[in-house]
């Protein structure tokens, strides 16, 4: 098989044998791919310091079922300013781990690739905020087909007008006041901001108030958690950074 050249973001790496490394890549053309980088732990000439989480690369790859072969890389950017800021490191690590855990192997998702790159670029420019994290999550769920149904009760199926009372249910569901009488309330402002997240493609365009974050955060966490077999490792680091 002939190698192909493709743009990629490093999601994770793992040492393998004495000198090799297994790298999980989110590629633009082949989706998530696991590749073996032979000699990566010894050869600075072929891979240098490129094989680090959330580096953006141009990779030379022989794609195979199972484990592909990573032949070489050119660095597009390692997002150096992210690596100088703990908050940015935490949010960047969370983003790539979330994509790694939710994205199946070998499924190209160009919209998600662009979303991830845009988020990393925003973090590199100093944009590590809770609002942008929730913006990323809402759009990621939407792209992967897990969009939260904000305007329909997950219990009885009734339509929920903009001014109707809503409650948060289990697993990131939204309920009417009757079905969700024991759930946490969702204000009209929180619902409006979540809709706005899905209506704009620009990080920094949506700012949640502390009250709205307190409502939107658990809802998004619940929606994400239903698709995870185990908790994300990066969440513990993010919690340590929280004021």
TrEMBL record:
Family matches, as InterPro entries: ARFGAP/RecO, DNA_rep/recomb_RecO_N, NA-bd_OB-fold, RecO, RecO_C
Domain annotation DNA replication/recombination mediator RecO N-terminal: ranges: 1-78
Keyword DNA repair carried by entry: yes
One GO location term (cellular component): bacterial nucleoid
Key word Magnesium present: no
One GO term of the biological process aspect: double-strand break repair
Annotated keywords: DNA damage, DNA recombination, DNA repair
Function: Involved in DNA repair and RecF pathway recombination.
Alphabetical list of HAMAP family matching this protein: RecO
Family: Belongs to the RecO family.
Protein name: DNA repair protein RecO
Organism: Geobacter soli
């Amino acid at each position: 098989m002939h190698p192909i050249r493709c743009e990629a973001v490093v999601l994770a790496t793992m040492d393998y044998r004495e000198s090799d490394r297994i790298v999980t890549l989110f590629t633009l053309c082949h989706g998530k791919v696991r590749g073996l980088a032979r000699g990566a732990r010894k050869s600075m000439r072929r891979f240098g310091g490129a094989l680090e989480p959330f580096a953006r690369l141009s990779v030379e790859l022989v794609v195979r079922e199972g484990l592909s072969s990573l032949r070489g890389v050119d660095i597009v950017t390692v997002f150096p300013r992210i690596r100088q800021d703990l908050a940015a490191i935490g949010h960047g690590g969370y983003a790539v781990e979330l994509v790694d855990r939710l994205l199946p192997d070998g499924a190209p998702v160009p919209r998600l690739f662009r979303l991830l790159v845009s988020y990393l670029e925003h973090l590199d420019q100093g944009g590590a905020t809770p609002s942008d994290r929730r913006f990323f999550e809402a759009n990621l769920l939407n792209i992967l087909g897990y969009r939260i149904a904000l305007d329909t009760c997950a219990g009885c199926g009734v339509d929920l007008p903009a001014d109707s009372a809503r409650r948060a249910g289990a697993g990131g569901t939204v309920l009417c006041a009757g079905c969700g009488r024991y759930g946490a309330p969702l204000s009209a402002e929180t619902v409006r901001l979540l809709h706005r997240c899905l209506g704009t493609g620009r990080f920094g365009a949506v700012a949640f108030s502390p009250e709205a974050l307190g409502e939107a955060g658990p809802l998004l966490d619940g929606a994400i958690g239903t698709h995870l077999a185990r908790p994300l490792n990066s969440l513990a680091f993010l919690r340590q950074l929280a004021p």
